[in-house]
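Researcher: Last one for today. Full complex below.
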Amino acid sequence: MPDIVVCIKQSIDIEQLKFDPSTRAPILAGAPKKMGEMDKRAVEEALRIKGRMGGSVIALTIGGAEVEDVMRRAYAMGVDEGYLVTGPELGSLDSSTKIKVLTAAIKKMPHFDLVLCGAASSDFFSWQVGPGLAALLGVPVITSAKKLDIQGDELVVECDLEKGTYTLKTKMPAVVTTTLDINEPRVPSLMAVLGASKKKAKVLTLEEIKMAPAKPLVQVSSIYMPEVKRKKVIFDCSEAAKLEEAMNRLIDALRKEEVME
Amino acid sequence: MDYSFTKDEELFRETVKEFCQKNIAPVWVEIDKKRQIPADLYKKMGEQGLFAIPVSAEYGGPGGNMVLASIAIEEIAYADPSVAVAVYALLCNGWPMLLQTYGTEAAKKEILPHVAKGEGFFGIATTESHTGSDLASHKVTAAKDGKGWVLNGEKMYISGVGETSQLPWGGGFWATARTGTMQEGHRALTAYALLGKKDGKMLAGYEPTVLEEIGRGGLTTGGFTLKNYRMDDKYRCGEVNQGFYLTMEGFNLARTVVAAACIGAARWGLDQAADWFKQRKSFGRYISNFEGVSFKFAELYAKLEAAKYFVYKTAWLADKVYMEKDPRFNPRDLNIPASMAKMYGPEVATEIFRETMKWYGAYAYSTECPLYRAYLGCFSYEIGAEGAQNIMRYIIARDVVGQEYVRW
Amino acid sequence: MRYVRKKSWNKGMNKNILIFSEDLGLLPELISGAREVASKLGGEVLAAVIGSKVEGETKEISKYGIKVLVVDNAALEPFDAGRYGEVLQQLTVNYSAELIMIGATTRGRDVAASLAAKLGIGCVTEVFRIDLEPEMTFYRSMYATAIAKEIITSSPKVIAVKPKTWARPETREGGKIEKVNVKVEPSRIVQVSVKPKEVIAEKIEDAEVAVIGGKGVEKKEDLEILRHLATALGGKGGKVGVTRPLAADYKWMSEWVGMSGVAIKPKLYVGVGISGQPQHIVGIRDSKIVVVINKDPKAPLFEVADYGIVGNLYEVLPLLTEKCKK
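Model: Here's the assembly. Have a good evening.
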């Protein structure tokens, strides 16, 4: 009956993110956001473990106004409880600060056996939260899990690393981060969505978790979309007659570019 | 005036989109080609809570409302622009809502849970081969048979006839039949929840046939003959001879979600056009650099937005009337908005597809390009499914100017 | 855990670069980058080799002419991110490191994050470029396709660097090995098994000409068609790869080209039957010439194409291959 804490974050939907054509900067104001893809799988995994073994699933998130939406999704998926640490100063944080705040919030909880989170968020892809949390909580971490089993107080985790698939074990309490391959997350039904609005998450202030606002340790000086000056010469070969000619022209072009043997 | 959707509605739209992208968008062309919705999709959609949305949990429904139903139908149609799946879903949303409002407890408890689960179909059967718009001239009759009823006659051009026969539980239709004389016209019609198949068994006296249609192939259309079809009085909906008025209320609901389907498909169409502009060059520039193209696109975009407002305003009003029972509004208030939505939506949709296909050019004329499937799907509503376009105009003119001056 | 504070361990006084990679094959290239930073800071490059029975590997690294700090302890087997982080923590303090540069493998990132959290310092991962003027700026991907320039305000700083950011240096004289005794807690991880990756890939990252197949390719055998084209276009330098779904889901290859897979920089990239998700585009961004073949004229990949063919790959590829041979 493990008590699981899942850390989730509302991430920018990068497929819908637009960039200002003159400054090449991302247009963040009003950009659509949703729960990160790896985070969804962390929640799903926690719920599946609960389905098999009992226990509890608490969702934890920190941030600005967007925390309500990500928590609503977590409730719709079926988590038991939600914790929010929110405030205007938490709007945009670097990874180190996030990790400190999350740790302080987790320490406020009565008990945890397992902390699950996505291996990386779907917008920043920093890959830091899991190992960072483990370091501050003083527990082991196994990242990029594609399969997770619990046997007694032991976690058996399968990860795809660069050199192969590793099967690792460690004792709880521990942190595990999940990749896209671990499961297919449930899409909440209408009934679940309507049920979620009846649930209220616990709100924690920075004071309550004994955290003073900290200066960020990493500053982003700019974000920009690199120039892609591609030629975009497109040959339409939907009709067979055009195919010959297009092939000839393409080969000529490639020869001129000196990229062909 | 708050023009934003609630958080529930936004999250619901997000989940419906995800569900549709996974389960419907990858197979919609197959569905149209094979003229068959995959059998397991109905159950999945039921589990997702996409059928009988405005039906309460008491009758096995998700406990939603018309705005949520419109959102669902719009997104399903975006994923299946041939609108076959969307139409199956919208019929199983609008007409179950009417059944919930006017059916007997027994009928509701028997039928609605199966519709919600995706095991049974519930649509509309008023049209007969000699009359669609002229509901009052029905020839299907219902006569008292002990405590129940016996029905005779033929209904034609009814959607979902095949599904009713194929789904595990079965299903049927909100149907109208004549319980008085032809002279009494619309005042002699009674409404029934007419089942064709129930508990997995076809019912005696109900003989269905299926037609082949030019579009929306995934959903069947056909007819059925009633030969001394016997039904219990529990299936009668509302008072005897009140059927016409109740059915008109049902059409207001159904037409709202029909328009939702059309705007969903049309939105997909406009997205295809916008994508095309980013690819296609002619005479050394993007075709959208030509104002003949970009200005037309702008007009279509504006029309689509307007059509969207019709849908959601009408759905909002329907919820005020039926869900909240707000005393300021009554069912007749839906006549104009629902008719406007249904008049406008399909016409905007077909225009969008026609223009987009013209921009695509020759490619759009090949079966490899799926735009024509969407065009034909929405065209069914321009032809007059769920209400002839000119009847919509009639209703609006009559209710605005006055019955006396407009009725023929 | 408490660490020993050396008097000189405060901001501005530390100048050394400490490098580490749990995959020792990636360590040499870090030396090249570390040397650039070291020359600006006026410090030296120190490499950490951590593990159990690592003598052999240590000798290899010392051939590049730098000082290698060896922490060899049976307790450090198998890899435990937190424990390795604690070891690096002690090395950072004791050897006055200002920048800790770690090879960004999955485990490397874990160590970097763990180390940064423990020391309470800033960490930037997935770095692919460092500018030293006007101040130390780290470049990384953001939002998959954008680039972020980040500055770490803490001292010291931790970064995880993507493979192939720098080239391997030449071997040289002057290497030293120093055995370091560090207080080490045992690993809390048990390694039950390792299934090595079946190398079905073709070292796509070295290809001069890369022909990459996507979901438009109907079956695994059809990759032969792509292979013929790759050879016709690039001879021995022509290789075939796949996008993520074809590797991760269908298992046609063990690796894929894209953000979470391999990034490639060929002279000529040919994307066949690929729609063009941002995650794939990131992996091919540095290709000199991009050719896209897809029957869907609206495939997003055409947005980043130099040359595009709208057509059926099964018709286009054989014809193109034939014409190339002429």
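Chain C is about 25% helix and 25% strand. The first strand of chain C starts at residue 16 and ends at 20.
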